[in-house]
Amino acid sequence: MIDTQHRPAATEEATPMVTISRLNKWYGDFHVLRDIDLSVARGERIVICGPSGSGKSTLIRCINHLEAHQQGEIVVSGIPMTNDVKRIEQIRRNVGMVFQHFNLFPHLTVLENCCLSPIWVQKKPRREAEKSAMEYLERVRIANQAHKYPGQLSGGQQQRVAIARALCMHPEVMLFDEPTSALDPEMIKEVLDVMIELAHEGMTMLCVTHEMGFARTVADRVIFMDEGQIVESAPPETFFNEPRSSRTREFLGQILGH
Amino acid sequence: MSTTAYDTDETLIASRPPPTPQGGVVHWLRTRLFSGPVNSVVSIVTLLVVVRLVWPVIDWALIQADWVGSSRADCTSDGACWVFISTRWSQIVYGFYPSAERWRVDIVLGLFFALIAWLVIPRLPGKKTAALMALIGLPIIAWVLLLGGMFGLPHVPTRAWGGLMLTLTIAAVGIVGSLPLGVVLALGRRSKMPFVRAICVIFIEFWRGVPLITVLFMSSVMLPLFVPANVEFDKLLRALIGIMLFWSAYMAEVVRSGLQAIDKGQGEAGAALGLGYWLRMRLIILPQALKLVIPGIVNTFIALFKDTSLVLIIGLFDVLSIIQAGLTDSDWLGFAIEGYVFAALVFWVFCFGMSRYSQIIERRLDTGHQH
Known about the structure:
Chain A contains eleven helices and ten strands.
C-alpha cells in the first residue's frame, strides 16, 4: 500500500479504468440497481452473470450513459460522469459497446458502419479511417465482406462486424451486452473466439454473458448479480468451485446443471 | 429391420435444377382466363363489358376527334375537338405572362425537366450535383428569370403568372419547402425538451386542423388587415407560404411515423459510438426513416400537387382555372368536356410520374435486409 503511494509512475497503471460507487437506479418505483460498488482495473476482464431482470445489462449501460442513474458516481478513465452532453460524448469515445442484437446500421455497408465514428467523431480522413477499419475487419476475419450490407451476413458475422466497429474508435474499455444470446448455436464460437483474442491482447472488458466457459477461460473476475445487487465477486476458480452465497450456488446449479 | 442410412454419403441428394416454368401467352391465357367452362364464360363477358365501356371513350377522344385547326369552324367531327386546347396552348402553359418574355419561362421549364430527367435516369452520374441544382440552383434561377426586375430583365408581376408554369411553381415550392420543414417538426415533436415539443405539437395540430381553403383565404384576405397598408405583400408569395406551412404539418406526421418505426437500438448504437444527436439523426435515423416512408411522402406530394388548383379561389389562375376560364369564351361554349379531360390528363401525368419515380428510388435504396 505505502509502496504504491511513493511510485508516481505507477499511478497510470493503478487508477482504475472504471469506478462505480454507491450507484442506485430506479425505473419508476422499481429499484433496479442497489448500492453498486465496482472498480475495474486497466486490462481487467470481468464477466457479469445473473438471472434475467437482475440489472446486469442496466449496470453496463450506465457506464456509457445509455441509461441515466439517479444516485452514485461513475468515473470512466478518470472522467466523472455528469449529465453534461459534452462530457457524456467524451466518455463514450473511450467506451466501445457490443449489443445483443448487433445494432449494425442496415443502410450502410460493413466498411461504412466501421468508418462512421472515426470519420464523424474523430474527424479522420476517409482513406485513413478505411485503412484502419480494414485492419480491424481483418482481425475479426470478415474483411472479405467489407462491401456487403449487414442484411446479407449471418448473425455471427454481424456480431463480429459490430465488435470491429466498436474497436475502430480505439476504446479503452469494451462493454459486451449478452453478445451471443441472439445467435444460432453454431455461430456462438466464432464470436467468442474473437472476444477471447481481444482479452488476450489486454483490452479492459466487461461482459454480460451466460457463456460460463468463456468466463472460466478469460475472466479475471466473475460477478454474480441478483435483484439489482452484486451478490458475489470472485476469480473464476473460486466463483465456480466454492461460491459463498447460496443464491450463486442456486444460479450455477441451474445453468450448469445439465 | 433395415436401417435407413440418412447419414452416409451415398444418400446425399444431389442438387437438381428447378422444373422449367411453362411460359408463353397461350399457357398464361389457358391457366389464368380459360381454365374451365365457367371461367371462360366469365372472362368473355368481362372482356365484352370492358370493350363496351372503353371503346366509346377511345372513339370519342382519339378516332373521331379533330386534331388540327385554328378556330371553332374546324370542329367538324362527332368526337372531341382538341383544337380548343391547341388554340389556347400558350395560355395554358404561360397564363398571362407577356408574350415577349415567354422565353424566360421556357428556359426555367427546360431546366426543370432536364434536372428531373437527370435525377430519374439511373445511368446518368452525379445525382448529388443534380439534387443540389434542383434544390438550390433552380429556385434561384427561376426566381431571377420569372420575376425579373434585375439584370435588365423587365419585371413581370406575379399576377401575370398563370397556367402550367404557376401550377409547377406552387407545387415545386410546396414540395421543396414542406419536406425539410416537416422533418424538423417531426424531430421536434419527439424532442425531450418540453418547450420545443409543445411548439411543434401546437404548430402541427393547428395547420392540420384547418382546411387548405381557409388557409388560402386567410393568407389573401386576413393577412393584409394585420400589416400596414403601404406594405405590399405579394399574393402569390402569401399563398406559397400558406401552402408550405400547411403541408409541412402533414409531412411532419408522415416522417414521425417513419422515425417511430426505427429500432431504439439504432440510436443507442450511434450514441455508443460517440455520435451526438444531430449526427445520429442525419447519418443513422433519418436515412432509414425517410426511406421507410417514401410511399407516404410521395402520397403527400401528390395530394399537394393536386391541391395547387385551390389557389383559384384567391384569384390565381393555375392550369385548371385557366382552362375553366377558357370555357366561358363565347366562341368556344360547349367544350367543357375537352377542357376538363385535358386538365385531368395534365395532373395525372405529373402525379403518375411522381409515383413511378418514388418506386425507382425505393428500389435503388433497397439494401435487401431487415434489421
